[in-house]
Amino acid sequence: MTDQLVPAQPTPTTAVMEPPLADAAGGRRIGVYVCHCGGNISDYVDVEKVISDIQDSGDVVVAKTAMFACSDATQQDMVADIQAQGLDGLVVASCSPKLHTYTFRAVAGRAGLNPYEYSQVNIREQCSWVHTDDREAATAKATALVNAGISRTRLTTPLEPMVVETLPHTLVIGGGVAGLRAAVGLADIGLRVTLVERELQLGGWVGGFGAMYPHGRDGHELIATLVAEVRRRPAITVLTGAEVVGKAGSFGNYLVSVRIGGDGAAALEIAVGSIVVATGFESYQPEAGELGYGIDGVVTLPEFKALVDGSAGAASGAPGAAGSAASGSPLTWHGRPVRSLAYVYCVGSRQPADVEGANQYCSRFCCAATVQTAVQVAGLDPSIRQFHLYRDMRTYGKFEPLYTEARKTGSVFLKFAAEEPPEIRREAGGGLTVTVRDLLTERTELAIPVDLVVLVTGMVPRANEELVNVLKLPAGSDGFFNEIHPKLRPVETVVDGVLIAGACQGPKTSAESVASGLAAVTQSAAILKKGYTELDPLVATVHAPACTACGDCLTACPYDAISMSEGPDGHVAVISPTGCKGCGGCVPICPENAIDLLGYTDAQVSSMIESLVEVPA
Fold it and tell me: Which pTM does this prediction carry?
């Protein structure tokens, strides 16, 4: 479920309880704010009752509701309350911590309160949105969650961010359009760049394209221009035929091993402050027999696009001049003229969940790429008959005119149901027949004779298992790399200083890939240009006297942040604070309870659990 956008309302923050300073003498002074979220919470949770239920909790001296806790007005009220009431703890009950943890930490900081003495309680995604059918139970659960947040805050201690120095050097992995543009942008803001490309040639997919929509520039020419810009900048070092095979160090000071020349070659060690991963995608490869694949004359969209671009370039006398060819230029397949063809959409995308390894996502670019190709074919020879067999046409945004142009140039569009895909067979005479039930003509069954069938294949994640293991890159269920948040932190990963850009994080057009590459540039600049950065202090720590050096924590840590060190009383586990990501995976695995997680200590978590069970939910 996505966030609902609600117009700002002038409803003032409602003060429910504000006891005098003397009432909490000797204890903590905690402020609690429960958000309506414009109805996302208050439509299903009685927020006023939540306030009345928690107002007798020990150490709570300010309790309020707010229409939008994240609004500027409410943030200003929080700052005023913290300062006027001398608060030393803050609890905000609203939406997911993924959205506003940094927002309310900043509020605490502006008011002079340590940001790590703030707790956010999720009563939207974890309460109101999942209990829309039971307001009373949702309210009771919200009260329990808020009480747990108060219990955690009661045991918080002031923590300070860790300051680490950073190297003004970025490693860009991938030499496609996103990686090249990111490298140029990084060099232009004064950072050194090492660009690593697995292939021997830069350019990726775009380097093999003809004219691209909507700017009309040839893909090969576009890449050539970017490569020339890279060569003009001495701050950029390009390594082709190279792969990243190792990473050591910590955020801001990574030591990356790059192997050039395949297995057995010596590795080059490069010290960098950040890493931008722009490894791109692969095109879906149909299985033999899938929608006729394997039959002579059944090709994928990338294969057909190369054929069309080649014909257009030959017709115009200039390589890669697709779309500018004169009418009547021949389009042939294995020496035979192509007079008719059918495109079958959504091959390898939007697959049903019961298919093993299903790609359930939409690849987004395929519809636009196909109708653009159809317009190019019409430019080669307007007499070629083109049939588009689609499930849903998704030429979004600026690509919508392409769909209209394709129809104007003679393309015929037929819609089929997902559960009734077209059937392709080769006839005895050598031709192909595509049979489809057209939903636009009340499921009329049509048998279409064609010379060529184009399977419109989508994007799939590129196989990068070694790179994933080296960088600890997080991947989603679809296999693409995951950002922390698609809106608030769209190119950052949970590994500090490791950014993702382009189609490695999901299907994108070239323009969208470049935009995410430039976002990674700005994020790297924010990290590296100052020469230092601050890391969250919410990391694991070892109580050395209790450690028996059993080694269980070493295998539990996914970030290799734990090592064994010899002390005066023997070996003991040591956790690198800059390498630790605060996941807590090592805490429960320790048989001696010698590890604790700052900000979520055993005492805090136990207190939260006790608060939850005290309130019937």
Answer: 0.80
